[in-house]
Design goal:
Elements lengths: L1 H10 L1 H13 L2 E2 H8 L3 H13 L3 E6 L2 E6 L2 H20 L1
Antiparallel strand pairs: 1-3, 2-3
Helix pairs in contact: 3-4
Length: 93
């Protein structure tokens, strides 16, 4: 079910962070993502694989690296709304 895939993608904070970084910066390599988030390349790669398997991100090869991007244009809109909602929630916390 698509809604379950979406819930799984957004469940882990690191995946939300990865998606936000890619959304802001465009195509990014595993190395760039790992450096930006302060995690290992293994960790970033593992979460990118999950997002790829869910059909949310895709990649293009630019040897020696893969560059990931958000496959679904509507997903960028969802991330914007998600960030907006979390900011509003913080105001009431």
């Amino acid at each position: 079910m698509p809604d379950e895939k979406l819930a799984r993608a957004l469940r882990a904070k690191i995946r939300r962070q990865i998606l936000c970084e890619i959304s802001r910066n465009g195509k990014m390599s595993v190395h760039q993502i790992a450096k930006k988030l302060g995690v290992t390349e293994y960790t970033a790669s593992r979460h990118l694989k999950i997002l790829y398997d869910l059909g949310i991100v895709d990649f293009e090869m630019r040897p020696p690296e893969k560059y990931y991007f958000i496959r679904l244009k509507s997903f960028k809109k969802l991330l914007d709304v998600y960030e907006e909602v979390t900011k509003e929630m913080k105001m009431y916390a």
